[in-house]
């Protein structure tokens, strides 16, 4: 195996990541038709409601009890980057921001000093199935950014750069791909400094073809996640779907596909190189900061919850939209 590959590892839940990323999860759920409440029409009997993470009949409720998803919960000290390729995610937060996004849209949220939000998956279709494919990536903030103001940003799929190569399509969510620069990330992100060479690319390679992944410009961490397809060949070694590959970012990589297409997420970035102390949804640098965070959240609830329900969703007929904390409304 070439020295450009450092290791190959199975993809769990969540995926294994490297600094500056904290973790990444891949949700693929084949939800049935929706009911009047935008939950599944099928019975919920036999599910561990409130903590349903075991795939049963092809889907999960997660922490939802009526609608699948994640009712309100806090974050501090990092960012969430949420890519929704299929289905929709309804966002609501303690800043008063809200949105519905899907079809390849990306939400970039800086938790900073503290925010509560909910992420629900409304089953909008009542006459057909509601498949969901979603990635959520946690990107750490350095100590200097742990207490920045929370920020909510939408990257609409119509605006995200797409690179069409002979045998591949690359969605450039973050970073620079062969001269094609992504949209700007959130302003206080580790990714906002181009010297950190943060990259998030969704790469689709055609069947029976060869693709060359370009090398990075500097010494950064780089992981490639093979989440859909059958198998690929790299330097004579066969790697099957549901495996991650830790790479030497200073070298380009040749990937050969067989009779099926291959789909990847690439995560890359300069390590922050600071201590990481995580307690659930809080990521700080010391245990003392974690204790202070828990005390502050208990007292302030990071501004409280301005929405009527902890699992807040928007009207079924509502299209894709973003409502920002300052009242700005963008509808797609």
UniProtKB/TrEMBL annotation:
Protein name: Pirin family protein
């Amino acid at each position: 195996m070439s020295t450009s590959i450092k290791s190959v590892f199975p993809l769990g839940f969540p995926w294994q990541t490297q600094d500056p990323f904290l973790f990444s999860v891949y949700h693929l759920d084949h939800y049935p038709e929706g009911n009047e409440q935008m939950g599944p029409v099928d019975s919920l009997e036999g599910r561990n409601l409130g903590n349903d993470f075991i795939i049963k009949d092809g889907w999960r409720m997660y922490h939802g009890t009526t609608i699948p998803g994640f009712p309100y919960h806090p974050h501090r000290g990092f960012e969430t980057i949420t890519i929704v390729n299929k289905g929709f995610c309804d966002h609501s937060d303690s800043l008063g921001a809200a949105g519905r996004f899907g079809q390849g849209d990306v939400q970039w949220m800086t938790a900073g000093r503290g925010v509560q939000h909910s992420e629900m998956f409304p089953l909008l279709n009542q006459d057909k199935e509601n498949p969901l494919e979603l990635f959520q990536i946690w990107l750490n903030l350095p100590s200097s950014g742990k207490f920045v103001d929370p920020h909510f940003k939408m990257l609409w799929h119509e605006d995200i750069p797409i690179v069409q190569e002979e045998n591949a399509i690359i969605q450039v969510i973050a970073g620079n791909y062969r001269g094609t620069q992504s949209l700007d990330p959130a302003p206080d992100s580790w990714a906002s400094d181009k010297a950190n060479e943060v990259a998030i690319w969704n790469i689709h390679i055609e069947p029976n073809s060869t693709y060359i992944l370009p090398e990075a410009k500097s010494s950064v961490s780089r992981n490639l996640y093979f989440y859909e397809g059958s198998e690929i060949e790299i330097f004579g070694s066969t790697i099957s779907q549901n495996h991650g590959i830790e790479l030497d970012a200073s070298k380009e990589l040749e990937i050969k596909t067989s009779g099926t297409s291959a789909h990847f997420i690439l995560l890359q970035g300069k390590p922050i190189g600071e201590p990481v102390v995580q307690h659930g949804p809080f990521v700080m640098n010391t245990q003392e900061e974690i204790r202070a965070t828990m005390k502050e959240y208990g007292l302030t609830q990071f501004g409280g919850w301005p929405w009527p329900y902890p699992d807040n969703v928007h009207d079924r007929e509502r299209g894709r939209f973003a409502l920002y904390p300052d009242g700005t409304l963008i509808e797609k």
